[in-house]
Amino acid sequence: MICARCDQPILPGQPSTTYPVDSGSAAGADVTVHAELCDMPDHQTAPQLSRYQRWVEAHEASMARVSRYAPPVR
Predict the structure, then answer these.
(1) Which of 17, 39, 45, 53 lies 20 to 30 Å from 70, alpha-carbon distance?
(2) What is d(CA 38, CA 3) in angstroms, rounded to the nearest whole number?
(3) Cα separation, 9 vs 33, whole angstroms
(4) What is the rounded average pLDDT for all residues in the chain?
């Protein structure tokens, strides 16, 4: 059996806890996790920006630092 929190195997004899999960669109499922709190692996939560999107953000940030009422730089 695999822990739903850390994706590591739950060994025979190792304490575990099973929780029901409600689902609005399908039958409910049960997830099993280690009884002791285990570390959740790092995971990406947002897509990476493209090269162009990073350039636009940097350009907008640099333009925001310049006041339109400041005298021109020579």
Answers:
(1) 53
(2) 9
(3) 10
(4) 83
